Fold:
Amino acid sequence: MNSQTRSHSNIATKKKQHLNLQTLLHDGARVKACASCIRTATKRLNALAAA
Structure:
């Protein structure tokens, strides 16, 4: 993702935003997934277990 930082004089400086990638074990393999994806998957698994 790209965005801009604005200084006091309103000059736009480009900056880059990176995904919050985390390494986790899934079925015995290391997988990289973003934090929000992990959170969503956990919530769905908990909902299925409760039902």
In short: The mean pLDDT is 92.
